[in-house]
Design a protein that fits this description.
The protein is mainly alpha-helical. It has one domain (about 10-35, about 50-95, about 125-280). The chain is about 65% helix and about 0% strand. It has helices at about 1-25, 50-65, 70-90, 100-110, 115-135, 140-165, 170-180, 190-210, 215-235, 235-250, 260-265, 265-275, 285-290; strands at about 35-40, 45. Strands 1-2 form a two-stranded antiparallel ribbon. A hairpin with a 5-residue loop joins strand 1 and strand 2 (about 45). Helix 6 (about 140-165) runs antiparallel to helix 7. The longest helix has 26 residues, at about 1-25.
Length: about 300
């Protein structure tokens, strides 16, 4: 019961912080509202302010959710890193020379070109690994501990990027976060599920209504926090399976379109479209279902 009520308190904290941050940013958007406005697949304006609001709400939730100070600090660090470096990519990306995919950004770094996506790869990788050092407990040999740190840091970083790849349709990343975090509520860090659900509940109306979007800042923060639940709450065997899964999905994203896979499954399509505004009756199918509204991302296909 203690974990349950801590999760409830965490959800309230995360939702309230997200809503308050969103209201504040809406009243005084840094750099003016134009800096945060993008155009969605309907040709309508949509705001990126949801992203930093959700990131702040998730960090607030992470700071009260963990079973101990060490875990709370690690989760908050990973989430803040995902949000901060994602936000840099949202606002500073050079769209005239847009580089897509982890392979593309790493390739640019090897050529001596630092893209905002490349900076995000380095930044989220560093904060995820640092969080893993903070949050991973040594239970065996030094080699075993370093292996656990590497596995945990990789789960967090790859989860952050995976959620960014999902932020291509209204509500998709929020739904994925909710679906993944509920089973994780049974782990030792289960109260963190409250942070994910609370922030998602506060952001869902604007996201599903296509007024707001997570962008890289919000999606990376959400994925990083879900990743910490696996990294700091699951046994080693489960973590290794999770690492294989998120790595495989990240690699697959370079070649296949998640949206096409979802649209090709009746069940997944219904879940994906639940709560969203219906597509205009006279809109071409490709415009209504496959245009990527996200301003940036490391995955290539939508």
């Amino acid at each position: 019961m203690g974990t349950f009520w801590r999760a409830v308190g965490t959800a309230i904290t995360s939702a309230a912080t997200t809503a308050t941050a969103r209201a504040f940013l809406d009243s005084t958007p840094p750099g003016g509202p134009e800096r945060w406005t993008r155009t969605n697949h309907r040709g309508e304006p949509i705001s990126l302010l949801e992203g930093p609001a959700v990131a702040v709400g998730l960090v607030a939730g992470a700071l009260v959710a963990g079973p101990d100070a060490r875990t709370r600090a690690a989760a908050a660090l990973a989430t803040a890193g995902g949000g901060a470096f994602g936000l840099v990519d949202d606002l500073a990306e050079d769209t005239s020379t847009r580089t897509k995919g982890i392979k593309g950004h790493v390739g640019a770094l090897l050529e001596g070109r630092v893209t905002t996506g490349g900076l995000k790869v380095l930044g989220i990788g560093t904060t995820s690994l640092t969080a893993a050092f903070v949050g991973t407990r040594r239970t065996g040999s030094a080699l075993g501990y370093l292996t656990d740190v590497a596995v945990n840091g990789s789960i967090v970083a790859l989860s952050a990027n995976l959620f960014n790849l999902l932020d291509l349709r209204p509500g998709r990343a929020l739904k994925a976060g909710a679906a993944l975090t509920v089973p994780l509520a049974a782990t030792p860090v289960g109260a963190t599920s409250g942070a994910v659900l609370g922030a998602a509940a506060a952001a869902a109306p604007g996201d599903l209504g296509e007024r707001d979007m997570l962008g890289d800042g919000g999606a990376n923060a959400l994925g990083a926090l879900v990743g910490t639940q696996i990294a700091f709450g699951a046994p080693r065997a489960v973590r290794l399976l999770a690492l294989a899964g998120v790595l495989g999905l990240n690699v697959a994203s370079e070649k296949v379109s998640f949206s096409k896979i979802i649209d090709g499954s009746d069940v997944l399509r219904r879940v994906d479209q639940w709560g969203r505004r219906p597509a205009p009756a006279n809109a071409p199918a490709s415009t209504a279902t496959t245009t990527d509204p996200s301003p940036s991302g490391l995955g290539a296909p939508a």
